[in-house]
Write a structure and sequence with these properties.
The protein is mainly beta and 285 residues long. The chain has helices at 98-101, 124-128, 137-140, 150-161, 264-269; strands at 5-9, 23-29, 34-40, 44-50, 55-59, 62-65, 71-74, 80-84, 90-96, 108-110, 146-148, 173-176, 191-197, 206-208, 212-218, 220-225, 228-233, 237-240, 246-250, 256-262, 275-277. The model has no long low-confidence stretch (mean pLDDT 92).
């Protein structure tokens, strides 16, 4: 059975999406459902809320599992499809740069076959994008498919927390999902990170010209944006608009983890990025 269901997230004052640069939706793939192979000019990224042993995506002929907390990238103009051969629904958050692609001619293409063939072994693209990489990859796929397993991210955050290094006063402990070839932001348009706020940790206030969208992976707390308190807990989402003073506070007993999606890469490419800390003792709103 082909298809999937999605719930688009929209800001009431915008024609498309939740911000002028970031598009978001929540999607579910029921048991037995699949998506037909396609590619398009926008890039899309899937943060798996609830995966399963029978759920997977095929991107450029490699099969990628969908497990809880994974970040799966389908870069612009890469073939992809997915399927759920398990017994339980699979849920993910879908983030894309479709609003940015409206700056040019935006289009999509359907694969000549209903499903693309899986003719590359597991880990093919990760190896191809490694330190010893084939010369053709940067020319044929400037951003190859990638998967950041949550197990690795969670382990890295745990190591950072016990490393003895102080958390960043504005962000806590940060883990950046790097571009597999350049080592820079996750994609040319959007950057993905996870940040860990230790128990009872409160960040300093700052502001920047990029927009940031937050998804609460675990924990509970409060974010103050221009004097307005946003209380959050696991699975909540919220947005900090550009040039708004904001700071976070972990209100729980354990560490709070936030997934962040930012348009900072494209803002920096346009040389429009600015960041400013709030001076100690001043009020943000």
């Amino acid at each position: 059975m082909a298809g999937y269901k999605h719930l688009g997230l929209h800001h009431t004052d915008l024609p498309h999406g939740v911000t002028p640069t970031i598009n978001l939706s929540a999607q579910v793939l029921m048991p037995g459902e699949l998506g037909e192979a396609r590619r398009h000019t926008q890039a899309e990224f899937r943060f798996i809320l609830k995966g399963g042993p029978g759920a997977y995506a095929v991107v450029e002929s490699e099969r990628f599992p969908m497990e809880d907390g994974d970040l799966l990238g389908t870069p612009a103009w890469t073939w992809y499809d997915w399927a759920n051969e398990g017994d339980e629904p699979v849920y993910w958050l879908n983030a894309g740069d479709i609003s940015l692609t409206r700056l040019a001619y935006r289009f999509r293409e359907v694969h000549p076959q209903r499903r693309q063939s899986v003719d590359k072994p597991p880990g093919y693209w990760a190896l191809a994008a490694g330190q010893g990489r084939p010369a053709w990859i940067e020319h044929e796929l400037p951003t190859p498919p990638f998967r950041y397993p949550w197990a690795q991210a969670a382990r890295a955050l745990g190591i950072l927390e016990v490393s003895g290094r102080d958390p960043d006063p504005f962000e806590g402990y940060r883990l950046l999902f790097r571009h597999p070839l350049t080592g820079g932001p996750t994609s040319p348009t959007l950057g993905f990170e996870v940040q860990l706020l230790p128990s009872a940790f409160q960040t300093r206030a700052h502001r920047h010209t990029s927009t940031t969208w937050f998804h609460v992976v675990q924990g509970q707390g409060t974010t103050v944006v221009e004097g307005e308190r946003l209380e959050w807990s696991a699975k909540d989402c919220f947005i900090v608009p550009p040039w708004c003073w904001h700071q976070h506070e972990n209100a729980g007993n354990g560490g709070a983890i936030l997934l962040t999606i930012s348009d900072r890469p494209i803002i920096e490419a346009l040389e429009l990025y600015r960041e400013e800390p709030l001076a100690l003792g001043e009020r943000s709103g």
